[in-house]
Amino acid sequence: MKYIFNEFYIRHDKALFITSSTIIVLIIILLIVMGIKVIKKK
Amino acid sequence: MFFIIKKLFKSDELKTGYLYFYIHFVVEVACFYYLSRVTDGSMIVWLIPLIYDAFAFVPQGIFGYISDKFPKLKLDLIGIAFLFLAYIILIFTSLNVFYSLFILCLGNCMLHISGAEATLKTSNGKLSPSAIFVSGGSFGVVTGRLLYRFRLSIFIILPLILTMIPFALLAKEYENENKDKELKHNYVKENINPILILFVAIFIVTIRGYVGYGIPTSWNKSIIQNVMLFSFMGIGKALGGILSDTIGIRKVGILSTLVAIPFLSFGDNIMVVSLVGVMFFSMTMAITLGMLASIFKKNPGLAFGYTTIGLFLGTAPIFFIRVIGLANNIILIAISSIICSLLLSLTLKKEVK
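Predict the joint structure of the above. Result:
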């Protein structure tokens, strides 16, 4: 295994990374919940 | 074989597939020319592709849901306008690159979703149209990178983006003429909970996305070899759908994942062997879309969005952690392929052709 996270995280814009990650995680959770609701509706 | 080729060129259902093959090709040319340009010699070379992967893949489900709810919304034309705008901002302003990148990602999302909607709705329950649409992307990725590598002027990309307009309008016409009220895809076993199918499909795409980056390709050193690699990926994606319609999705799903293992494992230094493996490996894409279309019959856009979530979940870890070493990668490919093949055999219907 090659871990490249630390090297990546130190070099780059942490704020942008954290904001983007949070938005993406929230969208994924929202879509999964939406999908389950759509399936249950049928 | 001749019969299949003849059918491919005569089929009405495939018209939107061919139109969106071109649109998908141009979208990826525009996106990968952009990415190659903004990451060339840049200090933020890691962050840009990660942000691109996140915002070009994940929000597709949201746009899909919106498009399913409001079918008259012209996401295709709005998407083209967004791509054009991203280039205008990049060329003519000195704004931070992330503004244009974000707009580019949204345009990419919209065009993918309109392609998925058009090809699934007019497919009459087949997988070939969507598979042909999806395959266009692989050719676009490598073309976009090459155009930048050969330092083609950025101003060529602007009119290229506009050439998508007539294709999108024509595809919309076909979509309106042949639109099914509900998708006719019926590939998964009815006795399995659809929520489980949803997670299995996302899991398979995720695993395949991650493993795809670990495929040993030491032979891939020249431009021509790189073109060949992406071309075979594209051919594999298209063949996944075409063969599923011809010999059955279950057979193709299980066989393609298993047959790919020896070719990928022993093709590290032999291009032809590796390319055959890559082709088989890429066939799963259409199959997982078929699984999701079977459970989201009224929401084709949302169904497509889940495949791209899987792709993001599969590719994101590569930015942080990689399995290195030929033997480790071969073990990973073999184990993951067997798991995927098992899951496909448990969830896909037997009788569907």
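Residues 11-347 of chain B form a domain with the Growth Hormone; Chain: A; fold (CATH 1.20.1250.20).
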